[in-house]
Amino acid sequence: MTYLDVKQVAARYGVHRQTIWRWRSGLPDFPQPVAFGPQTVRWSKQSLDDWDASRLLA
Fold first, then answer.
1. The 3-state secondary structure of the chain, one letter per residue
2. What is the residue range of 50's domain?
3. φ, ψ dihedrals at 48, nearest 5°
4. Residue 58 — pLDDT band, cuts 50, 70, 90?
5. Which of 14, 15, 20, 46 is the most exposed place for a label (fewest CB within 10 A)?
6. Are 58 and 15 in contact (CB under 8 A)?
C-alpha cells in the first residue's frame, strides 16, 4: 500500500498544506490519516482515490 505525506497530498490537489488540515477537520468525508508515530501521519493513496471517485459520482 502507498502512503502520502501532507506535502504530497497538498500537491495532489494543488492546495496549501494547511488546507489539507482544514479539510481533515471540516469535511466529514475527507479521508483521515493513518498515524505512524506521535508526529507522523500519512494518507492512504487508495483512500484518496476512493474519495476522488465518490466526489465525481456526486
1. CCEECHHHHHHHHCCCHHHHHHHHHHCCCCCCCEEEECCEEEEEHHHHHHHHHHHHHC
2. 3-57
3. -70, -40
4. low
5. 14
6. no
